[in-house]
Amino acid sequence: xxxxxxxxxxxxxxxxxxxxxxxxxxxxxxxxxxxxxxxxxxxxxxxxxxxxxxxxxxxxxxxxxxxxxxxxxxxxxxxxxxxxxxxxxxxxxxxxxxxxxxxxxxx
Length: 107
Hints:
The longest helix is centred in the first third of the chain and has 6 residues, at about 1-5. Strands 1-2-3-4 form a 4-stranded antiparallel β-sheet, with no helix packed on it. The chain has helices spanning about 1-5, 30-35, 50-55, and strands at about 40-45, 75, 80-90, 95-105. About 15% of the residues lie in helices and about 25% in strands. The chain has one domain (about 1-105): Surface presentation of antigens (SPOA) (Roll), CATH 2.30.330. A hairpin with a 2-residue loop joins β2 (about 75) and β3. By secondary structure, the chain is an alpha+beta fold. It starts with a helix and ends with a strand. The mean pLDDT is about 85.
């Protein structure tokens, strides 16, 4: 069987000329990834609890975090800290947002 596979010619694929539809070839790597969506996570604080405390949690339970009100929150992409910000609200639509206060790491 190996001899049969060796006798078959390798298939030829057509070459596609660079065109406006195929402009990825002419773009820099940073331009190619610039439109890829990423998810930002906002970390307002951390704490450690035992498994017993976690399994005993019910409606109304609360956990004390390592942050105080007004302290910057951490912004992460793929688990990497990219900066810090403050929590803000949009009074018109009642949404929560983050105003960047510092940038730690560019992607």
